[in-house]
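Ticket reopened. Same input as before:
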Amino acid sequence: MPGIEEFTFGAFVVETAFVGDIAAFALGDGTLRLARGISVEQLDVHSGAILAAAPTRDGKGLVTGGDDGRVTLIEEKGNVSVVAELPRKWIDRVATGPSGAIAFASGRQVVVRLGDGRERTFDLVRAAGGLAFAPKGLRLAVASYDGVSLWWVGTDAEPVTLHWKGAHLGVLFSPDNRYVVTTMQENALHAWRIEDRQDLRMSGYPAKTRSLGWTVKGRFLASSGADAAILWPFHTKDGPMEKEPIQLGAREVQVTRVACHPRKDEVAIGYRDGMINLVGIAQEKETLLREPDGGPVSALAFDRRGSRLSFGTEEGAAGVIGF
Amino acid sequence: MSSSQIPVTVLTGYLGAGKTTLLNRILSENHGKRYAVVVNEFGEIGIDNDLIVESDEEIFEMNNGCVCCTVRGDLIRVVEGLMKRPGGFDGILVETTGLADPAPVAQTFFMDDDVRARSKLDAVIAVADAKHLVERLADAPEAAEQIGFADVILLNKTDLATEDELAGVEQGIRAINQHAIIHRTERCAIPLDRVLDRGAFDLERILTLDPDFLESDDHNHDHEGHHHDHEHSHDNSVASVSLRSGILNPDVFFPWISRITQEFGPDILRLKGIIALRDDPARYVVQGIHMIVEGDHQRPWKEDEKRESRLVFIGRNLDEEMLTTGFRACLA
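Engineering reply: fixed in the latest deploy. New output:
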């Protein structure tokens, strides 16, 4: 088994990401823990819980949103700045884009703050379920009830709406900017091919998908929500349409998180019982990375080179695995 | 899993009935408990408490083709967010707007798997204005639904009504909902353990299906309520139908209850029952909201307990004869 450094934080690990060389963990107790090797620094960034967090695109910072209405940016050196403060609101969705762009949402209000300080607010008819910047950052996708709206972040042009009935909770673009994918309330994913708005429905999950990721070059979309990681092929002309997905790491335990290796065709899979496996897409070779301890894996992230994997659980266990 | 499910209390009531008064009381009283409170607007909440969450009512229709399967998307998010906080809660209170249909709120705790794993509906409380409820029942369909849906009813502002008016309004409540517990209050003054964490939705409360038990509760109830169904069965008002039978054949009962809820779900506000099944040593409890029906074994029948099945429907346009005949046909 590869080397593993474990920590006991005692609070729900909402997100993890590498900030520069540091493994950062955003917790439900409002703190951020920054792990350098075995030493851990604690930063109190929110007075309540951290509800959402996302690493900046340059990999040198982490944006957090909390139930204290604050959005904060933590940088590599450990300095914290408050990006926004909406008293008595819960900021439970955040997203980051190129050139320091940040988006966050509370209910029906979405705010985009560009790297140059310009700020725009979008008022929606229905609450924002998820946010994602397009790869080049020109557009922001907002998932919501009955579809996704694509907003131009730099102009006042009307948003483009991609319609599909139902509640859309999370959203992301494919790396080639051809597809927008959402997770839904009803245990399914939906995707639109942007150029012709072709609908793609990916269903059959026994639970909601909460974790998505693209494998190298966007060939596969890896997803949680079943007793295996489900990988939908996106590298062919029509994407996953009428194709069977690949199932990786099948166990009789639900997959709660997936993280795709940034350079290899491998997926790290976190399960409801706390186990973490690394599985190769082609050979289906499985490596056990962490023994189960009962706490559902709630956060999982590779560093930029894919040489380390950080993880956290709902029960407050966390760690870094080195390869 | 079930031991860690946080009890959820849903607070309904027509505008001005006193929901905010009750909330302020719950938040300010020194009960040593930790409640998260979801309100539709901070408005007159007089207490600053970091566990008060303002939430925009966000109704999700489910894509399962069922017209009444709606949930509150905002509540799903709030519950998920609350679960990230350390320390846990003794309960979650959800205030609904005066005109809200309580069903989506209640259904959220059955239909969303993640929410269901973490929380359970404890009781639906309706706060009613003793002076004005009778008028509201006549002119606002939402008011009748809120009463029909309730496990516990606070008949509030009793100081502003005469004893005759109170008797009249209780009779009006009983005409809709024979099984809710009614508490008379002034300014919502009531020991909180009478309304919170009652397990009312939890099916121990079905014991109140026994009319004798009902009468021993707070007040003497008029018997009128038990006969009203015949008077009202042809209009659109909310009413209750109570059924009683012996030991049932599961192979007949389950298809029957499933068919009834599929067919008449939109008209059924609530259903609750304790069922004695053939060759089954445990009491089987069922509950439902519209087209959702859930059942589970509760506890073994006691030696001296009469094995019988009881089922109550609260809803609109309920065909008592059809339900009675159908329920009897389930006899083992």
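The longest helix of chain B spans residues 250-264. Confidence is low (pLDDT under 50) at residues 210-234 of chain B. Please confirm and we'll close it.
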